[in-house]
Input
Amino acid sequence: MKLDVQTLAGKASGSVDLDDAIFANEPRKDILHRMVRYQLARRQAGTHEVQERGDVSKRKKRIGRQKGGGTARHGNGSVSQFRGGAKAHGPRVRSHAHALPKKLRALALRHALSAKAGAKELIIIDDATLKSSKTAELRKQLAALGATNALIVSGSEIEENFAKAARNIPNLDVLPSQGANVYDILKRHTLVLTKQAVADLEARLK
Output
């Protein structure tokens, strides 16, 4: 697959050949869905916790008379139906992460890249560098490029001026090539890759 390359200002800058095995697959929604669930589950903190019976300090004495009280015959007050009592079967601190095979994770990334390429939502630029860290300048260039809601994947490192200019723009994410992932690719309308990012991703996914 051949795709035109542009500068950050939106001007033509040659073309690049994309590997069909990475950018020309028929996207499978089930694989993408499994990968997104896997990523979001790993991000959950899992720090929710409440007091259960063993965590509540209450007297063990029966709270009322066995008979003649006109109510049910309860034991101590640490049960969940009384004020100050514990939660029955409440949430506990745990990890929500689950396993997903490494080959399936790589396949999901190929399908995410293919989905953007197939939907004409993939833009290739020569590099992601700026002479100054002015946000207004970068915002103007992205508007000319047609990437107002986008994920920009740079090379192995993000250039300092570009990172500073991009951090104040809403609906814009910037990642190094090793940080490219399915969830962030699908979250934004447009995927912008530098030529170095294309080379890194192809080397990573072959």
User: Anything to note?
Assistant: The first strand starts at residue 2 and ends at 6. Residues 74 and 192 are 65 Å apart (CA to CA). The chain has a mean pLDDT of 93.
